[in-house]
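Folds vary. Our protein:
___
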Amino acid sequence: MSSMPAKPLTLVDHAEQDVIPFERRAVPRFSAAGRVTAVHCETTQDGRQNHICSLLLHDISDLGVGATSQEPIEQGSTITLFFPPHGPERGFDVYGEVVRCRHNQETHEIGIRLTGKTAA
């Protein structure tokens, strides 16, 4: 984790325009900036293990989140994102499944499908 001070989460008011004409998204996505703490659960030979990491948000919608991570997160892992409180707003948690993890130079692009369900 970095020692940089935490910055508040910001969302852009307008839906990001996709340049790909065959876009299949069912709901609009919004650009996001900020860091959230995540806990992902992976199945290993020793059973299930939880790992804590920091994600840098890129976009968010009602159905998913796009982010980058310094470490890879196994596809199929359950994940919980902890959005911190800001000013008078309460913090909240979202739950999902990692559907994509691609190595990109020094980071990993993570795609998360939101499920609304906690890890069992």
Observations:
- Residues 16 and 75 are 25 Å apart (CA to CA).
- The beta strands are 10-15, 30-33, 35-44, 47-60, 64-69, 78-83, 92-104, 107-114.
- The chain is about 0% helix and 55% strand.
